[in-house]
Amino acid sequence: MELVSFVILHFRDKKITDDCVRSILRMERQEQIRIVIVDNDISREEEKRRRLFDIYRDDPRIFVLPIRENGGFSYANNQGYRFARETLRVSWIVVLNNDIQFRQPDFLRLMKESYERHPCHVLGPDIICPETGRHQNPMAVRLRTRREAEATVRRNRWALRFYPAAYPAASLQMKRIEKRNRRQEKENRKFYGEAQKGIVPFGACLIFTPDFVRMEPLAFDPETRFFYEEYILAYRCRKKGYQIVYDPALCVFHKGSSEMNKTFQEKSKRLRFRMERTAEACEVYLKLLQEDQDGI
């Protein structure tokens, strides 16, 4: 029997995490499911941390993995991925944010049928924002070029240097990007209803198939604190000849940005955090391209 592990990155809000867990527990084929909750909230006292463990202590399928170091998104998820792969010995690993909701009871069956139709190493479901109905996957249809990565680093570093004076212009640019993305989505609705190969998948929910799990000890390598994990993963897969597939037959719902909005209630602080982490992560991606002397 092939086991499937859902690795959930928890931060602060137990209810959001529990809603995600409950949606998994409503699926069929429960005997195949193992859930790993990576507790990445180092700000809490040990007594509060234990409460998350106590919620699930009587369910042998659920494991709470506390992380003491604030290593960011890639690091925390890699701890959960490694535990699922090496300790639980699962065949499939689904890495997801804690604000993901599953509403397909037969998700495991659909996942394996998709894998049979489209053999691949990484599988991306249709990720829908319930508030807006927007599709978040695929995140991109191609990798960022070296020139584009250099421009991203340069633009963010410049804006951070002159922050907060640059905040109004940066905020306006973000709104323009969002408006453009919404317009493009309306113009390309058919795109999200078709399976796609070779895309850059959105990191809120990534399905690592047995082909990937068997070969790779880590989900994200090299690690970044936040952002650009998807581009680095897609680039790594391209180098190794791994296939990434988006299949709308699989569907999840993503509340999106709920934890970040609680952490940074002021828009200016939230944008600054995003710009800082984007610049750092994009530099990691750019270093990969430079080291490989890749022509993209």
List keywords for this structure.
296 residues; alpha/beta; globular
What proportion strand? 15-25%
* Class per helix and strand makeup: alpha/beta
Q: How many strands, what sense, and barrel or not for the largest sheet?
A: 9 strands, mixed
Shape: globular
Order of helices and strands: EHEHEHEEHEHHEEHHEHH
- Whole-number radius of gyration? 19 Å
Number of helices: 10
* Helical residues, percent: 40-55%
N- to C-terminal distance: 41 Å
Mean pLDDT value = 88
Tell me what you see in this structure.
Strands 1, 2, 3, 4, 5, 6, 7, 8 and 9 form a 9-stranded mixed β-sheet that branches. β2, α2 (46-56) and β3 form a beta-alpha-beta unit. The chain is of the alpha/beta class. The termini are far apart. The chain is built from 10 helices and 9 strands. The radius of gyration is 19 Å and the shape is globular.
Gist?
The protein has 296 residues and is α/β, with parallel strands linked by helices. It is 46% helix and 18% strand. Strands 1, 2, 3, 4, 5, 6, 7, 8 and 9 form a 9-stranded mixed β-sheet that branches.
